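Hi there, hope your week has been kind to you so far. Do you reckon you could talk me through the fold, stretch by stretch? I've dropped the whole record in just underneath, so have a look:
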Amino acid sequence: MSPSITPSSRATEPAAPVSTPASNPASRQPRFVVAPGGTLRGQLRVPGDKSISHRAIMLGAIADGVTEISGFLEGADALATLAAFRAMGVVIDGPDRGRVRVMGAGLEGLRDPGLALAMGNSGTSMRLLSGLLSGQRFATTLTGDASLSRRPMRRVTEPLRAMGAEIETTSAGTAPLVVRPVANLHGIHYRMPVASAQVKSSLLLAGLYATGETCVTEPAPTRDHTERMLTAFGYPLERTPGRVCLHGGGRLRAIPIAVPADISSAAFFLVGASIAPGSELLLQGVGLNPTRIGVINILRAMGADIGVEGLREEGAEPVADLRVRPAPLRGIEIPADQVPLAIDEFPALFIAAACAEGETLLTGAEELRVKESDRIAVMAEGLTALGIRAEVLPDGIRIVGRGQRPDVFTGGRVHSHDDHRIAMSFAMAALRASGPVEIEDCANVDTSFPGFAALAAGAGLGIVEEAA
């Protein structure tokens, strides 16, 4: 029987520090300058889902056969994953306008890259690969940029070590990670102290190489793209509510994968069209995985007018077109069960909260403090700079909305602290601002949303990208 691991501490890692812009000159370029007011209209498709793009490359690389991917996100994060597998000997054609062909090397076919694998700003790449690489016969070093190198990794390295993996971190529990080969991994039963799809996925990927059964129990639902994709690749799983198990030693069979538009990227436009009078947007082909739709549920609870059209399934994922029109929003206490379903979309939701009537309260969101930035502290800083009352809580935030007045936000300058979602969220704030909004440190927007400024400008946002 597999050993059972239950961590005793809920929060053993510190929040990611908020860097000051002056400490990192490279982060000062480019920046966004967004004119006040405007509407968002038309039809558009945001880039492919980042989470699914990562996993399509990873599973395609260790599958038997050729995996054909369409809709692949050609952003820096997903490209870091692609480059890592090329370095490990996997033949990959593309990307070419979202199309990628991965010639699978099989479960045991990866090769020693002979150099450190650079993950850039991608926490998904680093955490998921740490699990997959724990079962390889060669040593690998995973490095990241300055931002990623501050993010906590013990949440994934500690349960991997319980499986027998040998992983070294810095004394602070951060990257670089050195993953060394071991004689064998063994399955565990792991109860996560904090809901995290990245931790769950890392352990499942390590479990492919482990003897016995690997089970992960989560305290709240998290995105299940890994489970859906493993099943689509023909790998047997046992799934019950809040728990997933697999046995090591199986095989994956290559399949075609159509990557839907990323709901996390669509979130900025859902909020923008909800708060800007006269707007109407149709967002095409958006992935509506049930573990990712918290942003829609929360916006609708606030009064947003979001319609779902043409619901269908592509691959293993539900997809639909979303029609969004402006509506008067009201502040709410965000339901606890929706927090893990919207964890990446909260920066955009905070902009909606500022435009709502009354207070919005978020609690139970400690995970936001260890993203690319401390998203609670950084968003509160920016909201305050634009005239919004925001109170930082240990596990969330309280935002006092300014209702239906046209000038919810003052103009001003905010810093994204190299966090792509912060930058894009504040760009949408300009739709209800009394003056221009200048957003510094926007270089990392391309990690998840290449072409954001051009697409937003085409829909009606008065955004210009400048080099500082």
